[in-house]
Amino acid sequence: MKRYFAPILAILTTAALVARAAVGQAAGGDGAVPRYAHIFVIVLENKDQSQVIDPAAAPNIARLAKTYGLASHFYAESHPSEPNYVAMVSGDTYGIRDDDAYYCHSGLKNQYCEKSMRPGYVNHTLTQPDLGSQLTSAGLTWKGYYESIPKPGSEAIVAGDPSWGAAAAHWELYASKHSGFLNFAAIQNSPKRSSLLVGFDQLDRDLAGPDMPALAFIVPNQCNDMHGLDPADYSADVAAAIPHECLHDNAAGLIKRGDVEVAKLVDKIQASPAWKAQANAAIVITFDEGSTDTPMGCCGIDPKSPSNFGGGLIPTVVITNNGPRGLVDPTPYSHYSLLRTIEDAFGVHEYLGHAADTSAGVQPMVPLFAVR
After folding, report:
1. Is the per-residue pLDDT at 35 higher than 90?
2. Cα-only R_g, the chain
3. Among 363, 336, 362, which Cα is nearest to 131's?
4. Residue 19 — very low, low, confident or very high, per pLDDT cuts 50/70/90?
5. How does DSSP classify residue 168?
6. In angstroms, how far is CA 112 from the centroid of its own chain?
7. Rounded average pLDDT over 215-240
């Protein structure tokens, strides 16, 4: 598959990557990331870098990668989805290795706790600190924006979206396993904090106004995030109404649909007052995990861990209003690196979990967040 950056990657030897990582770490200490007023993180689903950074497959994302910045060696932590979302907002998977509901614990028999009888099963409600609570404590604002969430702070595990039509009311468009924040007791037990988990209608209002939060964690629904729906999960009439490009097995269609969704989101953000202001702002387009279960990772992962063994090489694009253009950064990064970058960019240096794990190669994404 031909990609615009293929000649660059082809000349990078293993030794060169190691050297580049060492230089990045030496330059990437506290204070190396400039202060940012806004960071928008858009999270998509289950695709490898080679599937997406390709103008033929995803022209919009490929264009943004070429125009702004591409982290060409960015890795997830695990398979399946949920542990990666937890890692993004806390710096660890905390032993979660399935997609069971946020309230599940060992031995709980429930349709959404399918793996709870497995040995080594951990409580999916976590008492450790999370990024939202960390930012709140630092006097900074944040919100999680979830397309098709039934209402702010919803406790739904999955939900349809009646605004898409009668059949869509039965589809699993919203999925709490893609939240990350909802796994934390500090969010579950605080109506004020859980109310910060809102829908795309609120995203539109916030982008149009003067009160856009510092951190926006943005997750499209499962038709628009390249995940897709499985017809086998529904009755025949409900399944028949699923758009072809939303079918779980239609990778090409899902990528094209998600690519269009990303373009719409980026256009909205770049048209907002928050983006047009002089203060630094960034959009990060990333994925939860790769498309296969092959272990592959870096930067804070442990190949022997059942929940933190490496979730694949995933596409990650960084768009800044005042930063670099046309940059391919081959430094090895992970979601832990992104978390550390967000913390640094907001002036928070008490790093969560593996975001502090510099001995394992976790470092801030300094080249991609530099200011011209």
Report:
1. yes
2. 19
3. 336
4. very low
5. G
6. 22
7. 98
Residue 118 maps to a domain: no
Residue 165 lies in a domain: no
Provide the domain count of the chain.
1
Q: Is residue 275 part of a domain?
A: yes
Residue 84: give the domain boundaries. Answer: 6-95+125-156+176-227+244-369
Mean pLDDT of 6-28: 34
Looking at residue 31, what is its pLDDT? 67
List the Cα angle 224/103/303 in 5-degree steps: 70
Scan for tokens 């944040």, then name that residue.
Answer: 142
Give the mean model confidence (pLDDT) for residues 87-92. Answer: 98
Residue 142: CA count within 13 A, CB half-sphere: 25
Map tokens 């859980």 to a residue: 194
Q: Per the domain annotation, does 188 fall within a domain?
A: yes
CATH number at residue 292: 3.40.720.10
Each as own residue / partner, the long-range contacts of residues 17-20 (CB below 8 Å, 24 or more positions apart, any chain) are: 17/73, 17/330, 17/332, 20/330, 20/331
Would you state the pLDDT for residue 29? Answer: 55
> What is the percent of the chain where pLDDT is above 70?
92
Q: Which residues pair with 219 in a beta bridge?
A: 146
- What crossing angle do the helices spanning 200-208 and 251-270 adopt, rounded to 10°? 30
Angle, helix 81-90 to helix 335-345, in steps of 10 degrees? 30
